[in-house]
Amino acid sequence: MKLASITNVPLTVAAILLLLSLRSLPADGVERPVADTSHGTWSLSVDNDLFANKDNHYTSGVQLGWLSGKLEDFREAPGPALLVPLLHSLPWVNDAGRQRFVSYSLAHRILTPDDIANPAYIPEDMPYSGLLLGTLTAGAQDAAKMDAFSLIAGLVGPSAMGEQMQRGVHQTIGSARPMGWAHQLHDEPILNLDYEHRWRVTTRGSRRGWGGDLIGQSAVAAGNLLSSATLGLGGRWGWRVPDDFGLPPQFFGEESIGSRPFSEAAGDRGVWLFALVNASAFANAIFWDGNTFRASHAIDYEPWIARAYTGLRVRHGRWGASFAFAITTVPWTNPENRHSQRYGRVGLTYSY
């Protein structure tokens, strides 16, 4: 598979989603809402800048996750019993009358400088880093708002196998061999705590027909992966938009947050467009600051970024699919004088 084939992925995905959209629209105009009785949802998301015909900075991300069905109490959640007292101690998510959920995910992410063909140390551009991260999320929602806490643990460095992953993919697609991984960050354990709050600003139209909503987003993260604060606003419009809080998360946040519908009003079919703009202020970020406890490659950067997403999501029965483009500012002066980066995201879900 060559690079040209990879960069055609957005067109292929868009065509598939369009066909699913047409299948999702009612042939007879009769609404058939179906209750959300799923016990869980598996999800797979793939980020890659090759979808946007680029190959630099945040260059690749893969996440496999599982999201529970609606829980009355965290004691119903699968997982070690010793976690239950901790989950019960969290604020907001244990308030009466709210639907609770948990999720587990495993993610691998790769970040590189712009010139990956250069084997030399490039002090003006970001370091090479591979990240392997596991996440446990506990959250709760009602019709108006959602809160979620995530504990992220993993590692950065050679043991995360970013070099092997990137070289293997590039060899498969016939892309340039990355040459500068000798300068990657050292091995370091990662521990982060994230919190995200979303609220429904307004709703228009019908959940059982054409309509949409605006959703506010605020989030904080603290740890050696990154420490940041984020504020954003997203919008959705289409046919049978569910009453969930489905938007892209804060940077490197848990992808499944907000994706469980609050009610069965929208049924099991739908198609909608979505967009999100947000801004984040950073106190630290290991992929820019370098290792926490050892000397390593690091860069000077402005302590904030802005991001924008736009995409399409389709739901048909147990399956869901999405594609989005993202653009984010580049907060440091780099050799290529790039001020922004673009990448694509493909997602697939299956509920049972």
Report on the architecture of this protein.
It contains 5 helices and 12 strands. It is mainly beta and 352 residues long. The chain has one domain (3-351): Outer membrane protein (Lipocalin, Beta Barrel). It has a 12-stranded antiparallel beta barrel with strand order 1-2-3-4-5-6-7-8-9-10-11-12. The longest helix has 16 residues, at 9-24. The model is unreliable at 1-7 and 28-35 (pLDDT under 50).
Features:
352 residues, Lipocalin, 12-stranded antiparallel barrel, disordered N terminus
| The CATH homology group name | Outer membrane protein
- Annotation field: number of helices: 5
Task: Walk across the major sheet and give the strand order.
Answer: 1-2-3-4-5-6-7-8-9-10-11-12
Order of helices and strands: HHEEHEEEHEEEEHEEE
From the spread of the alpha carbons, the general shape counts as: globular
Query: What summary fits the major beta sheet?
Result: 12 strands, antiparallel, barrel
Strand residue percentage: over 45%
How widely separated are the two ends?
Answer: 33 Å
Overall pLDDT metric = 91
Could you please say which CATH topology applies here?
Answer: Lipocalin
Number of strands: 12
Text of the CATH class: Mainly Beta
* CATH architecture designation: Beta Barrel
Blueprint (SSEs and pairs):
Layout: H1 3-7, H2 9-24, E1 40-48, E2 57-68, H3 83-88, E3 99-112, E4 129-141, E5 145-156, H4 162-173, E6 188-205, E7 210-223, E8 226-239, E9 269-285, H5 286-289, E10 304-316, E11 319-329, E12 340-351
Antiparallel strand pairs: 1-2, 1-12, 2-3, 3-4, 4-5, 5-6, 6-7, 7-8, 8-9, 9-10, 10-11, 11-12
